[in-house]
Amino acid sequence: MIEIGRFNTLTIKSNTGMQLHLDGGEYGDILLTDKHVPRDAKIGDTLNVFIYTGSDAEILATCKKPFVQMGGVAWLKVISIGRAGAFLDWGVAKDLLVPFAEQDYELEVGDYCLAKVFMDEQHRIAASTELNNFILDEVSYLKEGDKVSLIIAKKTDLGFKAVVNDAFWGVLYYNEVFQPLKEGQKLTGYIKKIREDRKVDLSLNKTGHTHVAPVTEQIISRLKENNGHLDLSDKSSPEEINAAFGVSKKVFKHAIGVLYKERRITLTKTSITLNK
Residue limits of the S1 motif domain (predicted)? Predict the structure, then answer.
């Protein structure tokens, strides 16, 4: 069965050289809307295409890769305003509509917004900036330590609110973030804690002994590049540590603690030395 708003592998049913139609099964023939038909495309061949909907809910196909697929959240630019709402550039010929009723604030041309892609009641692909209608506060399938995809939504009093795996809300606390973050930024993160109310605390770094192995090797490599010496220690500031290794002070301290126990380094209050 064809999944609208996602990539599907379909068989070429007809090719006039100007237009190419794909076998859409229950949806009938589906037009490939790309201006240029793929070279050497023959009847019976298959194409991996993105399936989307037109203005009248007709089913269409393209070889282009959209910026976001069905159910996803993305940071998209408003390129026009029409009678039905605002239209976003999402990398496909038919712009993505955010109906006025799905806007949590008035969108204007040139704005960027965080939008969720969904199927409307007329079976057309649309988007919404009313994220709270789609993104859940309570997680259902994740566990602590899981690697997740994040999109930064906005700043709060506590930290950065982020969309987790296009489905849940989570928070990155200010005192645990040591790099610039901006709205719409995509990142890889980790589930730091799932609270009793099933809300999520996030981290940009892995936790636990096994997860610091890449950091320990990075420290050893940097020591070797600097004649076995670094002017960093567990007393260094979080900003200095993040600038050097891109990790939090907690992760850095854990990593050098592992190296110290393995007797691979010597520590002072201001430096690290590689043991011979």
Answer: 69-130, 143-205
d(CA 230, CA 259): 14
Q: Are 79 and 50 in contact (CB under 8 A)?
A: no
pTM: 0.76
Strand 46-53 to 59-62 pairing = antiparallel
**Which run of H or of E encompasses 62?**
strand 59-62
Burial class (CB in 10 A: 0-12, 13-18, 19+), 256: buried
Whole-Å CA distances, 76 to 68, 79, 91, 136: 9, 9, 10, 21
State which CATH number among 1.10.10.10, 3.30.360.10, 3.20.20.80, 1.10.510.10 fits the domain covering 210-274. Answer: 1.10.10.10
Question: Bridge-partner residues for 127, per DSSP?
Answer: 117
Domain boundaries of the chain, sorted by first residue: 7-62, 73-133, 147-203, 210-274
Q: 95 in helix, strand or coil?
A: coil
Residues 157-207 pLDDT 10s: 999 999 999 999 999 998 888 788 999 999 999 999 999 999 999 988 776
CA distance 194 to 145: 10
Buried-state track 31-67, b at ≥16 Cβ within 10 A, e below 16: bbbeeebeeeeeeeeebebbbbbeeeeebbbbeeebb
